[in-house]
Amino acid sequence: MASLKELKGRINSVKSTQKITKAKQMVAAAKLRKAQANAEAARPYAARLAEVMGSLAGKITVSENSPKLLAGTGSDRIHLLVVANSDKGLCGAFNSNIVKAARLKARELEAQGKTVLFYLVGRKGRAVIRREYPKQIAHMFDTTDVRDPGYNEAEKIADELVAMYEAGKFDVAHLFYSRFRSALLQEPTGQQIIPVPAPKVAAAATGSVVEYEPDEEEILAALLPRYLKTQIFGALLENAASEQGASMTAMDNATRNAGELIQKLTIQYNRSRQAAITTELVEIIAGAEAL
Amino acid sequence: MALHFELVTPAKLVRSEDVHMVVVPGTEGEFGVLAGHAPFMSTIRDGALKVYRTENAAPEEIMIQGGFAEVGDTGLTVLAEHVEG
Fold this sequence. Notes:
The complex is a heterodimer.
Chain A: H1 4-57, H2 68-71, E1 78-84, H3 94-111, E2 115-121, H4 126-132, E3 137-141, H5 151-166, E4 172-180, E5 186-194, E6 211-213, H6 216-290
Parallel strand pairs in A: 1-2, 1-4, 2-3
Antiparallel strand pairs in A: 4-5
Chain B: E1 3-8, E2 13-19, E3 21-26, E4 29-33, E5 40-44, E6 47-52, E7 60-72, E8 75-84
């Protein structure tokens, strides 16, 4: 049986842990609201761009002369997995879920005899992937010095990816991130980003003849990198929201656990205190009776 | 008749309002868009977007970088990567 002093010390230490998890939970809740607002604000642009891409893609046929970003390199030997993680922990299984999804895909591709490379965004998840695929990490993109990954980061990532693609370093790229469903539910997702999958052609509702300047192909060529950026940007935003959601849930659980632990320890503390008092009393009475 | 004008960046919807005319710096030259313009799409070079709220008003200039403009039935939509001011 632990001594009274020891128990008191443990109760205090659990209490201070609870304070921290509670604070982190509230911070996450506030940040989640902001991240959600950001994701909301980015939607019009992405929607418009997808619309335009769709209508353009419906007009031109993919041939050898089409931009490589759309048509592909002609082979699918080397696959690049872009894995977007967060920089901070304390968010439950958020990062490991994303990494797990990426690893599954990597195994599947390797089983098909393809070469797999990794491009890591964010600090978490580096260690795990480095342990398993030490020689296959093409690049690690650092986001630790920015507070919220924004469009500038998305732009840099996309530029690097396009440069690598043009240099023939890979043939197909997949993006892994966590899709934000709700504060309680985040879904790790993987999607192909290069070659750009043609967006579903919205049924040309207007039917009016649109004039293009310069011509369709040139606009499409200019649009493709931009579309890629938007997709990465969207993924970063979803990731940010998911991270905060996961963090909130994890911290909520931690706070509740700490509460339970405190209760248990307090009961134990009170019991031992009473036992000590009882023993003392028994001793005094026994002493008095002996007289 | 007013032209519905929207300026959108990846981060947010910057403008959504009815104006008289907008002059857009297209890659192949500036073009002005009034209400009822034929469907049209163009890429944009970096430059100033001139927004005329009314016919005789002094234009308001918005610097934009990278993107494209689309004129459709609903009006003019400018998608820009960066907007200043």
